[in-house]
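Continuing the batch. This is chain 6 of the set; chains 1 through 5 are on the previous pages. Same settings as before, nothing changed between runs. Recording input and output for traceability.
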Amino acid sequence: MARDGEGKRELVIVGGGPAGLAAALRAVEAGVRPTLIDERPFPGGRVAGGHRPAFGLRNPGPPDGDWERQQRLLSRFRIARERVEVLQGAVAWGLFEGGELGVLHRGRARPMTAAALVLATGAHPRAVPFAGWRLAGVVWGDDARARLAADGDAPGARVLVAGSGAGLPLLANRLAGAGAAVAGVLEAGALTDLGWEAHRLLHRPGLLGDWLRNHLALLRAGIPYRERRVVTAVHGRRRVEEAVVARVDAAGAPVAGSERLVTCDAVVLDWGAVPETALARLVDCAHDHDPRRGGWVPRRTDLLETTQPGIFVAGDAGGLCCQEAAELEGTLAALGALKRLGALGPEDAPAEIAALRRRLARLGKVEAVLARLGAPRPGVWELCPPEEAFCSCQEVRREELERYIGEGYRTLDHLKRRSWAATGICQGRICEPFMAARVAGAEGGHGGAGGWIRARPPVRPIPFGAFGDR
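Output for chain 6:
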C-alpha cells in the first residue's frame, strides 16, 4: 500500500481555496474521490482571513457577501470531507511529465501521480517597492488578513491602509474592528477612471451593496478615504513611525509638492495579486499576457483545460477573479477533469456546463471593470528610488537593474542571471512584477515584453532532509 501522500491518484486538486473546494465537491457528486492538496492549515484560501471573522474582534464591521458565500462553501465541504482525501499543510513543490507531482507532507517529499489534475493554486500579493518598504511595520494585506483570522490582532496600534482595488475599505474596517486606529485609506486610482464602464458593476448588485456598506462604515468610524493617494516612503528607527503620503496623477506618478506626513506604526499595503502559475509553467503550459487578469495566465479551453492534456487551471491561478467566479471555475474544471477520466461521458452535463459558462461570462464583465480599477498605474513603479533594493532576497537595487536593462538585457530570465534578482527564497514572486514593469518601460509599455522568469522545481522552499529516505 502506498504511504500517505504517495502513489497514484485519479483526480488531484492543488489548492484549498474556493476553486479547489468547488472542484472537490463536484468530483464527489460524480462518485470520484479526489485528493486535495492544501498548504494552509485550514481550507478557504488566501482570502479566508479577509472574509472570516476573527475571534476577539471588538467590532467586525459590516457583513459582506463573499464571507457569507465562503461560509456556505465551507459548510458543504465539511459535510463531504470524508469522501475527499485531504492533505492539509502539504506543499506541491514540483510538477513533471506524466502528471507526477512532488508533494511535501508531514516533513517528507513524496511522489504522487494524477490521472487528471486541477491547479487551483490561487495568487500571491503584488509588491510595489518604495523608499523604506522593508522596514518593520510594512505589512502585506494578505498577511494582515491572516493575522486577523488567526488571533484577531491588527499589525499596529495606528495603521495606514494603502494600495488599489475595491477591497481596501473592507480591509480597513476589519483592522478597525480589531481595535486599530486606522489613520486613513489611500486608493491610488479613482472611481471616475471607470467612466462609462462603471455601469457593468450592476451585473453584481451584491458587490455594490458591500462596497457601499464598507464606505458607510468608514464614514461612521471617521476613517478618511482618499483617492489618487499613495505612500511614497516610510520613516522610522526600528519600525515604521511615519509615512510620506502624496497625491498622484492619472498615470500614478506622485505630484511634486503634494507630500505630507502621517504618523503611524504600521502600513498595510494591498496592490492586488498575481496569478500563481509556477506549476503550470514547469510543464510548459502555454500562457498569454493579460494585464486585466493579473499578468501571465494559462491558455485554456472552454472546460479550462490547458495546452497540456489532463491539466486544468481554475480560480485566480487562471486569471484574477472574484470568489463567485472562482467557485464556478472550480466546478467547470472538475467537469472537464471528470470527462477526461471517463467518469462523465463526452456529451454529459451540457446544460450545467452552458449555465456555468453564461454565469462566468456575466461575471467577466464585472471582473474587467474591477481589474481596471485595481491595476497599478505605470507611475507607481517609479516610487522605488535608485538606491532602494527591489529584490529583498538578494539586495539588488533599482539602479543596478536599470544599468543592465540599458546594457541590452531585456528578458526577465537574462536579467535574473545577470543581476541575481529572483534567485532567492521567493523565486521572483516579489520582484518579478517590478522587473517586468521596468522592462516594459524600456520596450514601449507592453507588460509582457520581458517574458517571465522560468520556473524551476522546487517552486516552494522545502528542506533537504525531506528527501532523506529517497
